[in-house]
Structures are given as structure tokens and as C-alpha cells.
Design goal:
By secondary structure, the chain is α+β, with helices and mostly antiparallel strands. It is built from six helices and seven strands. The chain has a seven-stranded mixed beta sheet with strand order 1-2-3-4-5-7-6, sandwiched between helices. Helix 3 links the parallel strand 4 and strand 5. The termini are far apart.
Length: 165
Amino acid sequence: MIVKCEEKDINDIYEIINDASIAYKGIIPDDRWHEPYMPEEELKNQIDDGVEFWGYTENDKLIGVMGIQFKGEVTLIRHAYVRTSDRSKGIGGKLLTHLNNISSTPVLIGTWADAKWAISFYLKNGFRLLERSEINILLPRYWTIPVRQIETSVVLASPNWVSEK
């Protein structure tokens, strides 16, 4: 079942993100990897900045999370993670479909360029990979990330995204 996460869920969100993010170790640039991948303070800052987490529960246990952030003319999907032990059950797809359905604006998703499995997942779910020239404009416009992360990330867009050309 998909539920909107509440403050009481922050420890589970933290645990899921840091469990699932181990997939990035050795894939993303070494200078961007740290443990925990998302410290609790950063998670709280993301929530304070408007990221709403939605979760997938099974047997009253939160096993997957995905954040959504409304940024005016666009909606961002942020921090999509499923517990390692619960992957490949369609949970990410269900969360993504739900968040797409509650968005009234085009959806953008940023991820690491070398996270081929993540890119493949979003492509399979109807998103398209944007060109580097557009990525370099969108990442600093809608995300607060360092230049090094911009250099090593990509952006995918929902079908209703109109490229700025």
C-alpha cells in the first residue's frame, strides 16, 4: 500500500535510503560517495526544503520510499529507494506511477550518469533522457547540488516535458 510518510517515519526513510544506496558504492565517483550516503541531517534538510516522501508498505513495514518536490512549473522526483531485500517486486514502479499521478506539472528526475539500472528503470517507465546541454541548465536551476555532481549526473523527463530549445 502507498502512504504519505510522516515525521514518525523518518528513521525508516533514513534506513531505507542508506540500505539501498549501497548500490552506488563503486559506481558513482569516489569523491561523491560517503557513509552514510544520506546523513540524517541532510534528510531532514531535504524535508525542510519541501521534499515529501511517499512510501510503500507491506505487512505494516515501510519497504520503499520516493520523494516528490513541487518546484512551480516542474515536479522533481527525489530519492527513490527500495530496501535491498525487497527489490525487483515492482515497488519502485508503483511509487513512480503514484507520484506522477499527483503531479500536475512535467516531472524531472536527476540521477547519477553511471547508475545505468536507475536510468533504465526511468526509461522503461516512460521518461526520456535529456541532452547534456539541457541537463547543465536544469540541474542548477532546480537542484541544490555541487558542480561535481552536475558533471556526473543526468536528467530524465516525463513525456509532457517540453525542452527549452
